Fold this protein.
Amino acid sequence: MFDREQFIEDCASAVRQGDRQRAVQEVVARAMTDPAAVLEALGQPARPGPQIVRASDSITILNVTWPAHCVLRPHNHLMWSVMGLYCGRKDNILWPRLPGDGPSRISAVGAKSVSTGDVLLLGKDIVHSVVNPSSRISRAIHIYGGGYFHTPRSEWDPDTLGEKPLDLEAFLRALETKS
Ligand SMILES: [Fe+2]
């Protein structure tokens, strides 16, 4: 059984521990042992995009609904994160900065595909782009180790791979308006 309020409390408690990301990973991994219960407890938002479950300076918990075939361009978080996928699929392309890339360019060096029940950890400095390869909606709990909505971050132009400030409003709108 998944209890939404207990989950929030467990995550808040986890970020007060020494290794915050690992502690949150344990909380999310427990929840992902029963993805159907998470789906039932969080509901099934018809509208794609993020729902705020909890937002503070130390932790942001989002329930994100991903439209079919949605693509999000490369971006960073500048804080650790843990994602638990409780419905569908997501493919992450990883773009860590490499020596010689210069101050603003990135290179794709890996990928991590997650399916229902999987938990993904991303480091503070990672850059990733995300695809929902499925023809169905995907759903995930995203937990960030900080204030997601007021931390200035970067995105990378998909054509030039040049860095620019992340326009969060446009970024999230792109997620919401995909069909
Ligand atoms: Fe991201």
The pocket of fe (ii) ion is lined by residues 75, 77, 128 (CB under 6 Å).
